[in-house]
Amino acid sequence: MIVAISDAIKKEAVNAGLKVVTIPNGVDTNRFKPISFRERQQRREGLQLPPNGKLLFYSGRLVARKRVDILLRALPDILDAHPDSY
Fold first, then answer.
1. Inter-residue contact 84 to 52 (CB < 8 Å)
2. Contact (Cβ atoms closer than 8 angstroms) between residue 54 and residue 60
3. pTM to 2 decimals?
4. Pairing label, strands 20-22, 2-4
5. CA–CA dist 75, 58 (Å, integer)
């Protein structure tokens, strides 16, 4: 038996002859979906970010076990390897 997070995955597994239980994805994909290119540009402009390039982002608690110290030590190398990042 497997666990599926969507009807599409469940259908594929059932078609393969597997027993399936569905546990829905916990994210509202109607609310949280990619934005349009224009909206992305407007948001970057509003945050005074360059119109292009990759944005580096960390989301997590600032506690020792998250090892943010490793991320911070690696940041210069990341920026050297990806100069279009911010």
1. yes
2. no
3. 0.51
4. parallel
5. 12
